[in-house]
Amino acid sequence: MTIIIGMIFLPAMMGSVESFSMPVLLIAFAVSLAITLLVVRRSKSQGHHFNDLDLSGPQKFHSAPVPRVGGIGIFVGVLAGVSALWWRKPELAAPALMLVLCAVPAFGSGLTEDLTKSQSPRRRLFFTAMSAAIAVFVIDGVIERTAIPGLDWVVSHPWAAVVVTVFAVTGVANSINIIDGFNGLASMCTVLILISLCYVGFRVGDDFIVWAAVAGAGAALGFFVWNFPSGLIFLGDGGAYFLGFYVAELAVLLLHRNPSVSPMFPLLVCIYPVFETVFSIYRRVMLRDQPAGMPDGIHLHSLIYRRVMRWAVGRHGRRSQTRRNSMTSPYLWMLCMLAIVPAMLFWDSTPLLVASILVFGVSYTALYWRIVRFKSPRWMIIMR
What we know:
Blueprint: H1 2-9, H2 21-43, H3 47-50, E1 51-52, E2 66-67, H4 71-83, H5 90-102, H6 104-116, H7 121-138, H8 151-155, H9 158-179, H10 185-203, H11 207-227, H12 236-257, H13 264-269, H14 271-287, H15 300-309, H16 318-345, H17 350-372, H18 378-383
Antiparallel strand pairs: 1-2
């Protein structure tokens, strides 16, 4: 936890980008904190609009109805954070604001699902792809190099690059939604990714990436206060798709604007949610002969909850269940750090980043198969 806190406040102490990073962080954090608290309090009187009343799904791990519209506070917090740039860096405020506005279709579709349960997964993915396509033309967020043989030739063609970019951004946004299931899991992983983007943006002198990432991290932390450990509010599809889109676009823009950054860096920083998604598709389609989009309860985070944490804190009662829920997330934060740390160390070295991706893939797979066979590593048992 000390390492995580240090990474969160690192950009605010990085010298000349500096002096204004902390105010942006605090503004985004304070606005998100306040808006999210307002939603939590409002849900007590209008819970039928905000609360998740379905407690029976395979990915439901809460014991009472909880509002799942945490994306509202995050969206407004990021908007407030980037708007604060007008006082110091107006030339950066405009593109940062355009980035947030590009996210409106993705955020709006997810929030509509949170409120009405009327948006199918395909429709949410469609609107997220629409946000990605808009960003290509509005803020020039396009992938033009990948360091992958064959794919580099594909993205050398403008329209093919647009298709690859839309697919990648939509996939990352959906992957953040996939890992959203436990208190603090998706939000803290997103904060860690944003801080790594901020750090590399600082190293290459890209103020836009630094400040936009700081605003996103501050807003996510404002939500995190109410989500972890008590689970007073959930991220919801609106929050998950917005954060996923925001992270993916900043990664694409960092790569597009800075030739010294390896194309493998964005993949490594996002590898935990991306690998979780790809592995889940493989597991469902190849091993279980099920549709790729069918929800189930055997994601890695679900297995840790069911087979490592289930008997660690009591057996019955809402408080025990909430505590088990929250104690699951730190295991996945550590897994996320397994990618974040080497990404920050080797951001300009493609060979080392590729090696780190392979190490992560092997580590994830080995951990998953040990837990699914009821052979959890000793360190996980001791930590609980």
